Amino acid sequence: MRRVLDSLGDPLLALDRSARILHANAGMKELLGWSRLELLGRPLTLVIPGGLPNLRQESPAAPPQSAGWEPHLPPPRPLVRVSALRRDGRPREVEVRLSPWPGGEAEGLSILSFHPLDTQVELERHLRLCRRLNMMEAALTQAFSQTSDEEDAAYAVLRACGELEGWTLGTYWRMEQGANVLEPLTLWTASPGLSDFTNVTMRRTLAPLEGLPGQTWTRREPIWCRDVTREARFLRADVAAREGLHGAIFFPVMGSGGRMYGVVELFSRAPREEREADEALANALGHRFGRFLDRLHHTELELTRDKAVRYLWESDLLGLFVSDTRGRLLDANATLLRMLGYSRRDVREGLLSWSTLLPPNQRISLEGVLRRLRTDGVFHSVESELLRKNDNRVPVLLGSASLGEEHVVTFALDLSAWRPMEPTAPREADARLHTLISHAPVVLFALDRDGNFTLSEGWGLEALGLKPGQVVGMSAFELYRAEATTLTHVRRALAGEDFFSVDALSTGPIYETHWVPLRDVEGRPAGTLGLSVDVTQREREARWRTQLLAEAEEARVEAERAVRARDEFLTIASHELKTPLTSLGLQLHTLLKRARQSGRPEDSETVQRLEKAQRQIQKLARMMDELLDVSRVTEGRLRLELGEVDLMQLVREVMERFQEESQRMGTRLTLRGEGPVVGRWDRPKLEQVVTNLVSNAMKYGAGAPVEIQVRSSGALALLEVTDHGIGIAPEDVERIFGKFERAVTVRKYGGFGLGLYIVRQLVEALGGAVDVESAPGRGSTFHLVLPLAGPEARVPTQPPTDAGLH
Predict the structure, then answer these.
(1) What SS3 string covers 510-527?
(2) Whether the Cβ atoms of residue 342 and residue 389 lie closer than 8 Å to each other
(3) Phi, psi at 692, each rounded to 5°
(4) 332 phi and psi angles, rounded to 5 deg
(5) pLDDT digits (tens, 9 = 90+) for 33-77
(6) Does the reported pTM lie above 0.85?
(7) DSSP alpha helices (H): ranges in 146-192?
(8) Three-state SS at 540
(9) Side by side, which strands form the sheet with 260-268?
(10) What is the DSSP code (8-state) at residue 10?
(11) Distance (Å, rounded) from C-alpha 381 to C-alpha 370?
């Protein structure tokens, strides 16, 4: 039996009388993934969990005998459709047939053959989907036929989805064209216990890409979620979880031409399993709803057009009448009848036609007008006249268009109120134009194709020694034979070129001319029209401005040279003065040391004088250092030697050096900090910055306390130096950081005005920023920010505000 079963290609199982598996051929592994060893001795329910109907019937009723059935064989058993279980746990629809093994009836042996039904299952799935689509189409057709409102139609769609497809809740988000957002228009639910989710939904508006409805709007395709509470993009997931909503789908409602109307969202309590069917239904619903909204929008436009035409027909703006293509009037509005003095009865009796309304001199062209209406369907507006019933003429503007079916609509605009002004209007316009040209410094002229003047007007002629009209009839080639450039421009203009030119005449005046070609009816050059403007003064001023700019540029170059010479002199002078000052300082230090050590009372006055002289020497040395630093910055020779520097320790050292001077000045120095602040900086440069800021605070603090704060904030080091001195005026706050700038007089405070300039240059070289807060009489606070990582990690030009520091 095993050899026979293995030789067959169909999936087969051999069973004993207790429905246990005795053998499985290779076809079973291909069909369901089970191997032979996994099935041997196992019950049939392992493969068919629901069991096999009528398995224990000994003598099942024989089916009807087919044409190929042989009487000596046992009758074939009927095919039974069951759901088999794959090895991976997924079901698979199959047909099985149970047959006894020939000669093995006594042992109860039977053979179970399998036939896969994948194609049939797929077909049945499509049929079920088609039935669902047909039912939905029928429901929507009935709903749409009973409404002409977008909100009612949307509610009908949501209710049909709930009643036919089992959805629990649905919302229609309408796209607001002006605001470019999604707003909930209507909501349907089959369960009254979803008030929290309903309230949250109806209060929201969504922008593009906001939430799943916003992403559906942007992507223009459905978004399916098996369990929406696990979807991070769903903004209402927490409320949905509380309300027990899990499955969801979001799909766009789109009309023709890709027009977007809105988004529909549907929710179910159970997670969704059939994604393909849900998306197919969503696409069909979105397309069907979009087509309905297209028709609704088109209907609204048609109603608006009909309403506009009706209002226009009933208004007194235009005379309107409808005629056939042979010229007979079929209808006319009250405005036309009142304009021409006819009645409605005249129209009904057929007394009016194009030939009766047009004057005799225009009836000759009537047939051409009607022919154009029959062929082109339109007759563009033209000024004409219509005859009143009393034979008086009415000036009108006429225009016609075909209505189809050999009908034509014509409008007639009464021009009676405008026509009396026409004879005087051109004369007034000509007078204004002549006055303008006669008093403006221009020359208006015209030349025929041979170059002869046909027009010569304008006040600008006086500069040429001419009078208006004096050169009419003369040749431009003869008049300007000595002006080669002008004659070149005349030839270009007569050739039909439109251009601008500037002509400097040998007599002195300079004219800018716009040459405009004149053409005959066939489009050939027939002359030129020119407008010349006297630009002599403008050109002279332009040359003067050019000369001034050249002189200014020369002065700028000279000033830069002087600045470079000054900087070079200051550099040399600083170097030269530095050496004797250093030597003098050492000698003063030695003398001061000896005077202090002598202990003699008469030397106390000498010590005071030597200390004063030493302070002046130190002040001169600092001024020389400032000059040297300025020269290095100006020449770009500022070099940084970076290393780890503790800003807190550096500030302490600077304060120690100022201790003696602060005591002498009566200034109390205080330091606040939170421990080491270590960064990657140039220590000497940073020390000079701190020294300049502390020295500045003591100088202008007028003996008041000076407070220094050091701390770090993230990747930044922050230094704040505050004095309570004279302060700085608002207009001087930014200026004090300039070279040789100060906010006080030199006589009272001294110095070069370079300290703060050097501070800003060094701080910016270290990648930081510095500024000041101050007001007159309230002291000043300088804020310094430096990146801990060094100059490569630069900070913004405006230091950040943090915990009381600017």
Answers:
(1) EEEEEEEEEECCCCCEEE
(2) yes
(3) -65, -40
(4) -150, 150
(5) 999 899 999 999 999 998 877 554 334 334 444 444 344 444 556
(6) no
(7) 150-165
(8) helix
(9) 181-189, 169-176, 260-268, 247-254, 223-225
(10) S
(11) 14
